[in-house]
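Hey, I'm writing a tutorial for new members on how sequence and structure tokens pair up, and I'd like a real worked example in the thread rather than a made-up one. If someone can provide the structure for the chain below, I'll link this post from the tutorial.
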Amino acid sequence: MTGARFVLAISGAEIAKLFRHLGFWVVLLLFFVGEVLVFWQAHVEAARHGAAAGLFGAPAGWLIPLRYAGKVTLSVSSGVVVFFTASELSWGTAALLVSNGLPRAWFVLGKLVLATLIAVVFSLVNVLAIAPFVYRESGIAILAWSNLPVSTTVVFVLAAIGYNMLALLTAVLVPSAAGALAAWISYVWLVEPLVADYLSAAIRDIWLPLGSLNELWTTPASGGSSAVLWATTSCVAGLYVALAVVIAFIAVARRDL
């Protein structure tokens, strides 16, 4: 089998495996329903304060889920990547595949395809969940896809892919599936936010891994920052993702399966 056909075969296998997994559809459905409910409630609260208030004119308590919708999407998407990858490594599936002749590099390649697919799926589902509410309101200045629906949604997908690549690295470095998931969630919601509190905005938004990825999609949404700053942030984010992919290949090659 040629290299190109092998890549297609690996990609097809990963896609089929994902779409056959009941747990994936359950998580995706719960994620979609949860986002719809949150944005519907925000819409209702905004309506109570008059049409002029707009969706983002809701009370401060309702602005929190709006502003964190993107981060929740990125977290859930990357968490799914961690679970799928780490479970195959810790439960012996990867060892079985390798013993049957699958090169370790191809295993990682398949997970890269999986991570990309999951990022695209969750990003699009997120847009579908909130778009009906966003476009009915007048105050649409926060979410990326509200200002430039096509181009900034693409940027959000790229940020989601970046998140998932970093999550993939976590999955191959931590021995157990539960440990990898706990480590990734802790880093996303505790470690980096705590570190960011002690740094200036210029440093945390550019030089922290997730901070650079968040800036990648939030800057076009808010209309802030210069094009030069956004380009710098994009380069830093790309560097982190590239390093994560390289280290993942090395880690799997040296890991005792």
